[in-house]
Design brief:
The chain is an alpha/beta fold and 334 residues long. The protein contains 15 helices and five strands.
Length: 334
Amino acid sequence: MMESASDVTKSLEYLAVQKIALDQLASMLRSDRIPNALMFLGADGLGQDLAALLLGMAANCGNPGSGVEGGPFYLFGPQSPCGACPGCRKILSGNHPDFLSVRRDGAFVKKGAVKELLSNLSMRMGEGRHRFAVVHDAAFMNRESANTLLKSLEEPPPKTTFILIAAQTADLLPTLVSRCRPVRFLPVSTQTARKWLTEKLGADEEAALSCALLCGSGLARAVNLYETGQWMRYKFLSGLLDGMEEGGRMEALLLAEVLARPGREKLTEDLSVIRAILREKLVAAPDAALRRKFAARLNHLETCEKDIRGNVAARLALDGFFTVFGKSGALEGS
């Protein structure tokens, strides 16, 4: 389900920079030949989720092409959805019977969730012209989930398109990749992000450049870092965490002391930033071993936060968490 109308408009502005991907999707709509299976490839935060929504809206819009040229939904040219008809509104709100999705639950996209998705697809189409089944976090399908999905990709239901969202083809089984047409979402350059922040938001050069360098090539992330002011603390904590990869137990304990000192309210904010850093590292991890490592660290962080909420001394809880970092961290990668 999407956020408020203003948030959607902002997100569409960020998506608009993905011109190559949008032109590719517009061509499919124009020819009325949407493939049975697509892969939306690219780093997290480049607009893949929203592009899937927009494609579903355009294929099922009650007034296709009626949107205002230059308006927020006008990203596919004459094939753009209106954004206002009942079909568009239902997809935006997550309530359309012919726009289905599944996400990671914990460490994996589970087989049961994929089976439920496929069961829904076996039913008669509801009220749309074209049905979509989106697999978010497709890289986190285990072999059982992927093989369950593969059977439907080999014999897809009519007027149905599967969209697998992943960072790269290497994250997916080759048998899945071979059955999907790729649509690539390209990283936003540091210069593009910096220019956006300075020209549209009035950011000074230091803030704009820092956010652009830290955002992981996603424009929405760069804007969020700037608007929340998190870029300063994010930059500080990200550097410390990276430094601890080459450090040891002493560096970990020193960081625990630094974070525990200001008090619980500030500590809660810092742990939230650290969670965001670890999640970004998890999504961007190029192989399964690194994904397991960062997933384990997120689990340790969750334990740390629960301990602190349960009135365990902050310093003690932090000591336990940060010792998973560094060469001497006994739990590293566990």
